[in-house]
Amino acid sequence: MKTIKQLLIVVLVIAGFQVLAQQTPAPAQIAAITIKGATAHIGNGQIIENSTIVFEHGKITAIGNESTSSRGREIEAVGKHVYPGLIAPAKALGLIEVNAVRASNDDDELGDFIPNVRSLIAYNAESKVVESMRPNGILLGQIAPQGGRISGTSSIVQFDAWNWEDAAIKVDDGVHLHWPRGFRRGRWWEGEPRGYLPNKKYQIQIEEVIAFMKNAKAYGKGIGVSKNEAYGEMGGVFNGSKKLYIYADGEREIIDAVSTAKENGIQSIVLVGGYQAYRIIPFLKENNIPVLVQHTHSLPSKDDDDYDLPYKLPKLLVDGGLLVALENSGTSNFQTRNLPFYAGQLVGQGMDKETALQLITGNTAKILGIDDAYGTLEIGKSATLFISEGDALDMRTNQLTHAFIDGREISLETHQTELWKRYSEKYNQK
User: Fold this and answer.
1) Degrees, nearest 5: CA angle 335-171-327
2) What's the CA gap between 240 and 244, in Å, rounded?
3) What are the backbone dihedrals phi and psi of residue 40, each rounded to the nearest 5 degrees, phi first?
4) Looking at residue 64, what is its pLDDT?
5) For the chain, where do the domains classified as CATH 3.20.20.140 start and end?
6) Contact criterion met (CB below 8 Å) for 186 and 195
7) pLDDT digits (tens, 9 = 90+) for 179-225
8) Local structure of 113: helix, strand or coil
9) Cα–Cα distance, 148 to 117 (Å, whole number)
10) What is the predicted pLDDT for the residue at 11?
11) Rounded CA gap, 177 and 20, in Å?
12) Contact 85/405 with Cβ under 8 angstroms?
């Protein structure tokens, strides 16, 4: 009887793994592949009609019009569209599986100043949330820690891997700083008025950040004797090997944050969020600050804001001459799959469609520092791309037929597509 129970437990465990496991990652590309006839959206604003794209050993070796010679296996894609893999920055993908289940969340650690916490080693390459990104063309992401004042260090991964070591394409690319808020919402349940109230601790919180930066900078110069991992990890933002991602929304907060970082010798800065960045475009241009601007599908934060400010904000920044990409920090990880449709919404605000595409491909790659290999369809770059039946920025027509990461043809099946196939005919049965 005991043996039967043990066997049953083993069977249930195996069945559980079969249900939970992600598809087996694709093997390395061996033979050349040619995509013929599709409209190629390069990711830098250019289009090639009736294109030919050839890639071998994970790299694009030829791209041009129909006169370009084919090699190896040929994929007929007339009437379809080819795009570079979309990139999702500043997200906790692979760190959170079920928000309500604490044991499945690994996006935060104890402490307020913890740049030494590396998100990469907690990344779950078999996450079903990550898996669900691929059918919409999102093939790369920046895995960013959450919580605290300085949350930790992010890394950039591709979304078809056995483990975090296989997934990583850029390790420890930047440190994430959540700047103090100058205002907070009134606690009406404690008798405070509704709306925004000044944060009386704002200056104190800034001084804490400044003190940490100064101590970390001194530590990097060898001042002091005791080992401090948090200070040590900040060395990269002072020598330029890492970027400092500053999360700030208000005009005052953005100016304070950028000025503080610059005064402390940090030059490579990226603004994340930037709700009021449109008010200080000259300041951001002067300081060469790119913006990972918040997602478009949200309500205005202030009562006197334009009703459509979140929708048009990225276009205002692009028109102002800033380097801009889209992110959606602060929302559910599942909503990251809507990234191409946030870009598509900008077309309704008057943005050129290819410019909107750049906000989730080429521009994102530049901001993250991976544009030497990803973000655009160019000779010598990674064959990380996908083929769609229609416009990738339109949820009605973005139906992927093929997707490749570093030339490897990946599965587009997920637990959701499996359920869709199972139930799609349920109500058509007689």
Assistant:
1) 25
2) 9
3) -95, 120
4) 94
5) 86-374
6) yes
7) 999 877 777 777 777 777 888 889 999 999 999 999 999 888 876 66
8) strand
9) 11
10) 43
11) 34
12) yes
Mean pLDDT by 10 residues, the chain (430 residues): 49 43 82 96 96 97 92 95 97 78 70 91 91 94 92 95 95 96 77 77 94 92 78 92 96 96 95 96 97 90 88 96 90 82 94 97 98 97 98 95 97 86 75
100 burial via Cβ count (<10 Å: 0-12, 13-18, 19+): exposed
Residue 296 corresponds to which tokens in the numbers above? 């478009």
Buried b (16+ CB within 10 A) or exposed e, 271-300: bbbbbbbbebbeebeebebbbbbbbbebee
| Contact call for residues 81 and 44 (beta carbons, < 8 A) | no
Amino acid symbol at 322: L
Q: Do the strands 385-388 and 324-326 form a parallel or antiparallel pair, or are they unpaired?
A: unpaired
Torsion of CA 128, 131, 135, 138, to 10 degrees: 130
Superfamily of domain 26-85+378-412: Urease, subunit C, domain 1 (2.30.40.10)
Residue ranges of the chain assigned to CATH 2.30.40.10: 26-85+378-412
29-47, pLDDT tens digit by residue? 999 999 999 999 999 999 9
Fold (CATH) for 86-374 = TIM Barrel (3.20.20)
> HSE (CB half, 13 Å, CA atoms) of 337?
14
The residues, ordered by sequence, that sit 6+ positions from 250 with a Cβ below 8 Å of its Cβ are: 181, 182, 183, 275, 276
Question: What H or E segment, with its residue span, contains residue 75?
Answer: strand 73-76
The secondary element (H helix, E strand) that includes residue 184 is strand 183-185
pLDDT at 189: 78
Predicted pLDDT of residue 224:
63
pLDDT of residue 200: 87
Specify the residue for token string 């390790």. 171
Residue 239 host element (H or E): helix 235-239
Torsion region of 45: left, alpha or beta (phi above 0 gives left; psi -120 to 50 gives alpha): left
Burial class from Cβ neighbours inside 10 Å (0-12, 13-18, 19+) for residue 229 reads exposed
Neighbours of 27 (CB within 10 A): 8
Torsion of CA 309, 342, 99, 128, to 10 degrees: -170
Q: What is the pLDDT of residue 385?
A: 98
How far apart, in Å, are the Cα atoms of 284 and each of 178, 212, 259, 312? 18, 24, 10, 18
CA 181 to chain centre: 23
Structure tokens at 166: 């296989």
